[in-house]
Amino acid sequence: MSDASNPDVTSGPKPSSKVNPVATPSVEIEARLRAALDPVSLSLRDDSVHHAGHSGAREGGHYYLEIVSSRFADLPRVARHRLVYDALADLMQKGIHALAIDARAPDEQQKFG
Fold first, then answer.
1. Nearest to 64 by CA among 30, 37, 101, 104
2. What is the pTM for the complete model shown?
3. Is the pLDDT of residue 106 over 80?
């Protein structure tokens, strides 16, 4: 039960811009995307091991994201990617070096391949 007069009670989880110091980057990325985009499907693959020794590897990980959310309905690809980047804003500056995104609306969901 929510009590509007009690500032300690919230109506639900809110996306946080603070990085959880205990979470791995993949866990933090998934948590942020789930909170911001309420996906029906989310798959995140960490490809960082394939980029070891690459100069950008020191700046953060390399990831491949497949995500399906109703938030993407009727949006062009650039707008969908912008929603993902907005959810990960500070992680894009520190923690993520590269992020490949396949973002779809539920009516476009088909087998990712």
1. 101
2. 0.72
3. yes
